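Record 1 of the preview.
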Amino acid sequence: MCGIAGMYHLDGSPASITVLKQMTDAIAHRGPDGEGHWLSGPVALGHRRLSIIDLSDAGNQPMRTDDGRYILVYNGETYNFRELRAQLQALGTKFYSRSDSEVILKAVAHWGIDAALDKFNGMFAFALYDKYKRRLYLARDRYGVKPLYYALVNNILIFGSEIKAIIEHPAYYSSMDKEGLVEYLTFQNFFTDRTLFKDVHLLPAGCYIEIGSMGDKKNIANKIKINRYWDYHFEEPENPRSKSEYLEELEHLFLQAVNRQLVSDVDVGAYLSGGMDSGSITAVAARELPFMRTFTCGFDLNSASGMELSFDEREAAEHMSYLFKTEHYEMVLKSGDMERVMPRLAYHLEEPRVGQSYPNFYIAQLASKFNKVVLAGTGGDELFGGYPWRYYRAVVNTDFDDYVDKYYAFWQRLIPEKALSKVCAPIWNDVKHVSTRDIFRDVFTSHAEEMTRPEDYVNHSLYFETNTFLHGLLVVEDKLSMAHSLETRVPFLDNDLVDFAMRLPTSMKLGNLENVVRLNENTPGVKTARYFQKTQDGKLLLREMMKAFLPDEVVEREKQGFSAPDASWFKGESIDYVRERLLTPKANIYSFLDYDSVTEMMNEHLSGKQNRRLLIWSLLNLEELMDRYNLAN
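->
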């Protein structure tokens, strides 16, 4: 796991090694074990190394083929690299290291970019330059586990694992992307490739960029070609098999996925909550790694109330640690821990997506004191139907656009569309052309709209959420783990396991498709209880499979997200911090937002009329982000 950065001067002017080093220094936390730089005329590639596989110097990057044609900088882990290496060796390819980086390099050199990407099973982002064709490729894994950003400024393509690397290039000037801000304030996420930084784009998951040097300086932007090589596709099988057959295959694929991701030359640990996803991963991994380390984050609930009283899962995690005989570590977060970490968090996060993520920062910090690699349960919910209260609101519709409208209304997590013009009044003339409904609808461009049975609408929802919500979780997890030089692996995002999940009948995931209940993400109370207690709903086949590894009380427990009791803290012990940062007209955010509109919404939370925890969290992040990166212009 590493960090990469670089540039391509498309007009042929020389790249700067000094600038390249500044870019890689900005992401040194991603790779404290070494650095490397390669420069040739207009192209410069940089690398920061976190040594996980082949700790010797043979794994250093940038890495070149024997003939010097291809040069690679790579961030990630490709879990089937040994099989691919054996195939390439049988074809006469020589290897000089035991690293997966060399396999990536020589697979592309031998098979070509499209065929090679189709073979890789793992998480990665890489830049590969073809000296003969003067062509640069930027690629990202199928699911978007590893990020890769780029900007085209003054005929220079600048890229990096994090935005802060791009900012170090003197051609780039930081400013707010106002259209991106509207998108974020609607969804607490980005469904396009935009960011909050003007002209900086996140390469979409499952895609690669191909760009070459042009003698003609005109229309350079049009020469950037984004190619999609993979996408999710959930569908009902025409001839479904028996439940027992599906169950047997799922267990085989789950064991295979976890064991594949244990490959490492350093110790592997695991996050362990009270839930079944992380618990089952730990159960399988602990068979191969006796006394492996596990990590849990809990919360002080003395000032919590309502549903937040169930947010601490330490007791359940400790019980599973006892069962699996792990070396267990835990920490407890209190009111006040958020404000202490916020400046560092905003610096590393860059994009405050999906939910309140500072607990993830703290637990990654804890794990990094003992391990370089941890396993996480991310992806199980999105692939196997873990959020029934979301899908059920839109399974009965008149047509596909009716479905889109219902789901679009649900996913306006921060500011509803009807309030945007008022909240964004200072910049409304610049952004009023932005249609967040069109942005939402465009996510489904490649998915089959003609299928309109309830099962199909659930599959549409799974497609949407893996492409957006899950992707947001992955971006956040990467930033906050790599802030501590920690690699997070996600066994549920194994190619074979994902392929299985996409063709699994909906009836094996959910059991109550006709129930439509209007719920809002901020609605107080336990949303899952309205389904789970009656139907044991959500991830049905996965729950049954996990009974082989976990106690029944864990498998049958209601879903619990990893979240602090901030709804209570924002009204109580953290209220002074919230007021100091946001309830002043001098705050940075009011360069773009209307003070009276925002304070009205916040006061609704403070008075208990509405639960605006996600909005308050997001505005606090934006305020810190604008401070740190000078975006208040």
